[in-house]
Amino acid sequence: MEATPFSIAVSSSRTVIRSFPSSFHTSSLVFLRNNRYKTCHLKVKSTGKFAVRASFSGDSVVTLLDYGAGNVRSVRNAIRYLGFDIKDVQTPEDILNAKRLIFPGVGAFAPAMDVLNNKGMAEALCTYIENDRPFLGICLGLQLLFESSDENGPVKGLGLIPGVVGRFDSSNGFSVPHIGWNALEISDDSEILDDICNRHVYFVHSYRAMPSDKNKEWISSTCSYGDRFIASVRRGNVHAVQFHPEKSGDVGLSVLRRFLLPKSTLTKKPTEGKASRLAKRVIACLDVRTNDQGDLVVTKGDQYDVREQSEENEVRNLGKPVELAGQYYKDGADEVSFLNITGFRDFPLGDLPMLQVLRYTSENVFVPLTVGGGIRDFTDANGRHYSSLEVASEYFRSGADKISIGSDAVYAAEEYLRTGVKTGKSSLEQISTVYGNQAVVISIDPRRVYLKSPDDVEFKVIRVTNPGPNGEEYAWYQCTVNGGREGRPIGAYELAKAVEELGAGEILLNCIDCDGQGKGFDLDLVKLISDSVSIPVIASSGAGCSDHFSEVFNKTNASAALAAGIFHRKEVAIQSVKGHLLKEGIEVRM
Question: Less Cβ crowding at N or C end of the chain, within 10 Å?
């Protein structure tokens, strides 16, 4: 997805002009990474014409309030993409002296308020906003403006907007967290939302503020998910949004541009969309590994358990991950997921190539990025211990929006089911406590085990749609660890229920039997898990054509569907999948 072409003309003291033809290739923007450009004239090789002219003064600096939780790199990249430099808040005075302030709140409510209060920034922030200075809060940056939150609370907020931030109600059948691309109902005087044009924006949150008579004058848009909640607020120069503009593609960039350059004009009006509700997500997955030269490459084997090359099964090199991720973004992928397939045995903080992939990808890919592989506690050769929280934090700082935990979550679930005690020490619990459960995806890798009788095992058993090789009518799904190599005494159903209780925000549901076969998702498995938990479920393994996506969405409660091989080999285009889903009456982001 490319940014909508636009040109900008502002005061004589500062001019920023950009031109993006429709054929512009996003990889050409890599040069922005190392430039703090005061005055520059740059020429870059591209598939079309591209020119940047920037003459910076203090007016072109954006002050960023980053309190150290979650992925703020994407906001930084989006700001720089739009031609601005960044000044980080170090002291309360930096807030008071800001000409424009962006607060990209990420994580949980209480830790964020603790940081603001302990550093004396809460009072400065209130003063700045009360004086009607240009402000944009994002996600938690909106919620903190309210009086309090029920998240691990009640916890007192900044108290600028009347209302309490409460958790979504999952009892009505809606999955919580609210994750994905949803539609807005925008008021007439929204200003920064003027270029959304009825298109989807990306949400990821478990808590929301509700409209009331006391806060109605603040509300600039709402969104429906079970109930109608506040999606954005505006009063004068003060704005805040519950969704993530930095992860909402070209639509989100238009919101940031409207805030940073309110007098800018689009050279081409965006195409009017048809967003009406939460869209089903189509996710592109890249299995990455280190080759003999130390570079990360994308691979895909014919069977799930071939996570490393062997004589029996060839793993194919399908390209460089940064380039592929950029292409998938332009093709319309709703999210991009990286799986470091050797991460279960490597020390991830020493995995500099993977961190670099995230950093470079996040510069030009403005949809959510998930990374998985080896996120657990480590002790290095020198005896230095690294917690899973430290490992995850480095991934977040490098550009990941969500992290995916596999084997470590299985061990944590087994211990929890054995003792009934939440220790708070597992990687799942640690990371979800600090960053919020919406930042933690649990990757489940089950194998179908056929049974003659439902009483043969202690785990959840289902009657299968297609009988086993010996006519078996029943099966259970045994979870595995270490890339599918080792079976564990826990079923997919039991694991899913346990990790939800431990704080997971989403489940990536693989299937060893279906992976790489191209015959469709395991609908029995997806239905079992998506009907059993109240968190979103991503169907994975087995997609071979567009029909398989509509089938899994029509027959199960999956929130998203993921594919790797068919996209890598260009057997099916992402836009073809989405076009098919639209024809089938399934809402998607276009």
Answer: C
Query: What pLDDT band is residue 482 in, cutting at 50, 70 and 90?
Result: confident
Q: Is 139 annotated as a binding residue?
A: yes
**Do 386 and 349 contact (CB within 8 A), yes or no?**
yes
SS (H, E, C) 495-522: HHHHHHHHCCCEEEECCCCCCCCCCCCC
User: What domains does the chain contain, in order, with CATH numbers?
Assistant: 61-260 (3.40.50.880), 282-302+316-584 (3.20.20.70)
Region 245-255: mean pLDDT is 96
Q: How many CB atoms lie within 10 A of CB 120?
A: 13
* 526 vs 411: CA distance, rounded Å: 22
Task: Please list the active-site residues.
Answer: 139, 244, 246, 287, 445
510 annotated to bind ligand:
yes
Q: Could you give the angle at the alpha carbon of 559 between the alpha carbons of 556 and 561, nearest 5°? A: 85
Cα distances (Å, whole numbers) of residue 333 to 142, 230, 247: 27, 27, 12
Is residue 491 annotated as involved in ligand binding?
A: no
Which residues, listed in sequence order, are joined to residue 440 by a DSSP beta bridge? Answer: 403
Distance of CA 519 to the CA centre of its chain: 28
**This prediction's pTM:** 0.85
Share of the chain above pLDDT 90, in %: 67
The residue written with tokens 């991830």 in the block is: 348
